[in-house]
Model the fold of this input.
Amino acid sequence: MSNSQVIDAQQRFLPDQDGELVAQAQRGEQHAFLQLYQRHYKRVYALCWRMLADKDSAEDACQEVFVQLWQKIKNFRGDSKFSTWLHSVATNVVLGHIRKQKTWIQRVFSIEEKYVEEQSATMSDQAEVSLLDQKIQQLPERARIVFVLFAVEGYRHEEIANMMGMAVGSSKAQYHRAKTLLKEALSE
Done:
């Protein structure tokens, strides 16, 4: 285990230490916001990367998350942990990014299958990711997003359905589809 992994693991078991930093950032103190960024950047980037399956898109989305965070941090009321709220912001940014990208790609290619093929083709640096992450990236878009939100990020199907504008049953079906495809891909 590397030093950064040990530090990340240790921070998970500490009480929520973001409270004072959030209060300072809400007052416009940039040093506090920088500390929040440094604490949460890796996890937000991982969420973006898993949902978008493209390094450049994930970097763009992650940057947008922190831009929006700076703009919206005064809206954080403390009803939940800051990290939970931040991941909700991140998920909404990524879903918006996907909607924008999909609209553009559909105009250019006009079929969803081309989009899936393009996303899979952009995965050139597979040495950086685990086998499971590689297989997750290859899932069809909706199945991948539902799988990441449910299995990795811990959202309930009701929340996913609401975020994605689909029925709860569709969310469950997409999750089942993703699990089936992953099992097949991993058994090969």
Remarks:
- DSSP finds ten helices and no strands in the chain.
- The chain has two domains: 1-122, 126-188.
- Confidence is low (pLDDT under 50) at residues 1-15, 107-129.
- Residues 16 and 81 are 7 Å apart (CA to CA).
